[in-house]
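pipeline/complex-builder :: batch 7 item 3
reading input block
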Amino acid sequence: MQNSQSDTGLPIIEFSDFSFKYRAQQEPTLQHINLKVRKGEKILITGPSGCGKSTIVHCINGLIPEALPGEMSGKLSVCGLSPEDAGIFGMSRHVGTVLQDTDGQFIGLTVAEDLAFSLENDNQPQEELFRKVDEVAHIVGMEHFLKHAPSELSGGQKQRVSMGGVLVDDVEILLFDEPLANLDPATGKTTVDLIDRICREQDKTVIIIEHRLEDVLYRDVDRIVVMNEGKIIADETPDELLCSDILAETGVREPLYVTAIKHAGCRIRPEDHPQHIESMNIEPYRQKVRRWFEETKIPKKENSNPYALQIEHVSYSYQQGEPVLSDISFHVRKGEMMAVVGKNGAGKSTLSSLVCGFLTPDKGRILLNGENIAPLSIKERGEKIGMVMQSPNQMISKPMISEEVGLGLAVRGVSQEEITERVNRVLTICGLYPMRNWPVSALSFGQKKRVSIASILVMDPEILILDEPTAGQDFRHYTEIMEFLKKLNTDMGLTILMITHDMHLMLEYTDRAVVLAEGRLLADDTPARILTDEVTADKACLKKTSLYDLAGKCGIPEPDEFVNRFIGYERMQREAER
Amino acid sequence: MTKLLSYTDKGTWIHRLSGSTKLIFFLLWCVTSAMTYDTRILLIMIAVTVILFALSKTEWRQISAVFKIVMFFMILNVVAIFIISPYQGCSIYGSKTILTPFLPGHAVTREELFYLFNVVIKYFTVTPAIFIFLVTTDPSEFAASMNTIGIPYTVAYSVAIALRYIPDVQGDYRRIRNAQQARGIEMSKKAKLSERIKRTSSIIFPLLFSAMEKINIVSNAMELRGFGKKKKRSWYAYRKFQAADYIVLIISGAFCVWALWFTFRDGSRFWNPWG
């Protein structure tokens, strides 16, 4: 690992003074890139959204310039070819790409057909298809699912199929574009493990694009390349990079234990191998971390408001005998900001559908401000409980921003004057007022998200339910959206319920989390306690936070309190910034 | 969710037949049924479809909803024929035996009833055949066999991929409709029809945007894996012609020829039981 930078062998990928500008854009997305990747290396490219990291992937696999045209200069060679000349098909023999959207990438009607897709296009004889599909299915561990349709698979399984689908080609280079974006933490961990195994056993060169750094570093990578604004600003080993402040400065989240050690006032040295908390030499930092723990005081806050929402013994099943939710009970107090967590398929979305009235519980009842909401229609509930969907594209139906935001009022027959007044007020809160007359299509994803939140807020709901509010967002946009929600929570006293599998989100922004696993309520506790309890974390497919390990290694007896103080400290810092 | 008219593998010999065999059988069956008005032939065909229906283990719940729709149109068709040309049967069979005077100019005749009976049983020869074809043919295998009988693979594959993404689009549709309903856009029967049509746009546009987003990803993903690279492609799901396929084709071909010969040997496609 240490000698990966030495000059043995020719680079399999080489960018020299490479620049690229998309046709529709003013500024070049990649500027004077110099990057060499050697055969068998495993490289992580990270950086904030729009830094050009996905563009690098598209240059390597030939989508640029064939499918995504633009101007380029400088030189790029991949496996001795120029992707520009070889085209997408020419590159597909050497480079396999696993896209972020595992659903969109699943083309076949069954697992076997999807694995065979690329071989079919190569017109290989059927016996060959059978043989290779079996072989690859075995590598990615999907051999028992060959006849399954995509709808019968979990996100992690679909991703395994995507990986298998590019492995059948016996490519030399594997590109992973944000492989962890849609996965729960535990599945993410197995994915990282599988990528690592494939890289070593099949002798592939691997490039991973990801901003969830800590999760990727679960297994060794040779180098981390940090990009910002189209340039490479660091190209170092993980141990070196984690000791610098480059990550924090570019808005990429460092591993939490690294941040914690830095909070304690330590300067981390590469020779202590900070890449993994398990194998890191903690000795030089132990005293300072302990002192920091003892000295950090965080204000305690108690919420004793009346209940806004009460879920009482709720059960639901789509098909008789297969309950999706069984006997779920919990309460949400007014002004609380809390999370409903659990892996995909644990029943989180079903729960929100029951609250909104899209589904009716088989058993149990749901109370809003102490009153049973069973008699209320979807529309009536919608005035009190606002539901924001994961993708703003699933909500936005009007071309203009102000029209979209006012839609809910317009269909309720509110007067035009009042609509304008309320829409303007909400747009001001959401920081969208200057853009009120813009077409929606001119907005960025994060801004669209705010439009979709604004279009719910305009109805003055008491409770806001958000489905994966930060899915697919980088750290900067994540912070932007979450700070905005926090502001709504503190300034307007809005009760916020977030459905998520993002552990950072629940740690940093909620005071309480409800954990669902296989349709049952597993825990109702502070995020710090949930993420330091191995059994709960395991069952819910969450991952025990690395802060827990740090606390253990430093000999701090109350890991959950350590996590608590870390979060409290970070919150105070953020508030100071505001 | 009920899987309406979708392929379910029940492992019968009909399921194991190649998709092309079933397609050709189905086409021959339709041609025969469309050409002949010979009641005897039609009754034989009904008997055969009922047997095939049972052999393919097709269940009533797989087809009941669509079957009801077809029945509705059949009744509409029969009523329309009677209203528009109440004496069609008389001119066909060359006699007029009034059973009961019904409305002025619309007396019920024996000939018209017999003609309508023939129309009805034609429906019953074709409809079950469609159902059997749909529920016993694996869509990807079907795409493969379309390709092997000469349809370009890009066209054949688009059928398979449409089937692949239909459940996704349905899911999107449900989620979007729910969210818009919560915002107060009433899509249920409570709202006026005109309002509902106008408000459909609030579902259609998000659905289109989501679909377009998806199409972009899917087409990139397909190209990255070499779709369209070569003039020909092979198929994982392709099923080679077996003896059973040849037998079925020969029998259905022979039946079709015989049925048409039997029908047309007296120069008319109608069979006149009184003549």
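note: Confidence is low (pLDDT under 50) at residues 1-7 of chain A.
queue -> next item
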